[in-house]
Amino acid sequence: MANNGPNWDGLLKWSLSHSEGASSSRRLSEEDRQWFMEAMQGHTIDSISRMKMISQIMKTPEQVLEAQGVTSDDLEGMLDELQEHVESIDLANDLNSIGGLVPLLSYLKNSNAIIRAKAADVLTTVVQNNPRSQQLVMEANGFEPLLTNFTSDPDIRVRTKALGAISSLIRHNQPGITAFRLANGYAGLRDALVSGTVRFQRKALNLIHYLLQESNSDCKIVRDLGFPRIMIHLASNQDFEVREFALRGLLELAREESERNLDRADVNLRQLLEERTRRIIVMSEEDLCAAREERELVDSLWTVCYDEPSHLREKGLVYLPCDDELAPDVVRDRFEPPLRAWAARRHDQTSESSVPLLLGPAP
């Protein structure tokens, strides 16, 4: 942070003098100055006003921000606040109408990797389960910089955040899925799987599973790019989520029999399932309960591939008494913005509530 903080007053003068249609001799009124200062210092609870001010800052060139004492920490904090506002679907959709979407997309090309990553994180929240904002981002050519960051940014955190944004952007969005295929997005997913970075691998596997469920024809693409071999390797990963996501992908490939996308005679596949079975059999009761999904996936994959009951089923380890308790929705909790998820759950529980939400109606 700068010693005396950002010079918001100077920044306002620059913004006004360079705004579209503004005269170079335009004078800054005391009312304008006070409104801007209060907005940027947090003295207002008007979310739209705050979003407008943040949008104005994002339109300002990096060198001007630096000259006015605005640091990368300031910008990251500003994006954090913007992300809180756009947890509301209504405010997320308002971002474009107030002129904030295009500047946010431009931050995907910021010289600072932290800002590039945070911009993608905010976009993830904007488009999450939000068809209108998905359409607006596609129309604003937001897919292209996200794909570039996902496939070629030198910073792994930027690549991971960009993949998260792409995943949210193209879900239940056929034009987005089509654009992903045409841009050879699957090659980027393959690179993510072999990256050795757990968070990157999780996001890639989760998106692969979704895409395979959406279109059986994608199984052939995945097979031809060598994904089965990689997923067999990842299915024995130390991270349980990577293991489960990899097993899900393998099961989707095995179920699509028309193209034989998964070689069931592959000795590595059989060795994997035998090894996972042995490890599950010797688990403690607590670990067995925690491994519910892995137990079911290993059993299903064995049955589909070899047309016989698995050893887990023979030993009665596929379904256990502890499975009667509802398992947490790990995927939703990981990928859905927390405030939006909370609002949705609250709406389900109190559909006739008379108390309005402060951040707008639940989605």
TrEMBL record:
One matching Pfam family: Fes1
InterPro entries for this protein: ARM-like (IPR011989), ARM-type_fold (IPR016024), Armadillo (IPR000225), Hsp70_NEF-Inhibitors (IPR050693), Nucleotide_exch_fac_Fes1 (IPR013918), TOG (IPR034085)
Domain TOG: 46-286
Cell cycle recorded as keyword: no
Keywords per UniProt: Repeat
Name of the protein this chain belongs to: TOG domain-containing protein
Organism annotation: Cardamine amara subsp. amara
Lineage: Eukaryota, Viridiplantae, Streptophyta, Embryophyta, Tracheophyta
